[in-house]
Amino acid sequence: MLSNIVQEANLTEPRMSLFPHGSDWDRSREHAGLQSNGHDDMHAGEIETSILLHAEPSLVRPGYEKANHDAKDRRFLLTLGMKEYTETGVIGFPSYATAEKGRAVLASLKVRFADHLAALGEPQQPRYGDSELRA
């Protein structure tokens, strides 16, 4: 739905960007060396827990290391909601999370965000130390 709104907003000129896009998350996962993928690690899993361990570790609940929950087949998620697939709210693998992975994910997303700004015609600021993330 949001992608349609962004596309319509940009009919005459670039005004809006949808960020992060699925490919931004995929590249950030790859850059950070995450073990899980975006489908299997949907909520409170490796990526989200890693970001919190880096940015605000006090928000990570004790016991996350043993809270993995695999719910690959979620075909009725939008109809039935998450409660049909998890009792805890976790769909993913928080035990794989580390603060270093969280730092790397955020660093990669920062570079990807600059790319979105550039597509909108915003001037680029030098990003020292991030050149290896451009690939």
UniProtKB/TrEMBL annotation:
This is Uncharacterized protein. It comes from the Bacteria. Belongs to the creatininase superfamily. It comes from Streptomyces longispororuber. It holds the Pfam family Creatininase. The keyword Thylakoid does not apply. SUPFAM superfamilies: Creatininase. Its cofactor is Zn(2+). One of its GO terms (molecular function) is hydrolase activity, acting on carbon-nitrogen (but not peptide) bonds, in linear amides. Residues 23-43 have a biased composition (Basic and acidic residues). Keywords: Hydrolase, Metal-binding, Zinc. The lineage of its organism: Bacteria, Bacillati, Actinomycetota, Actinomycetes, Kitasatosporales. InterPro entries: Creatininase-like_sf, Creatininase/forma_Hydrolase. GO terms for biological process: riboflavin biosynthetic process. Residues 16-43 are annotated as: Disordered.
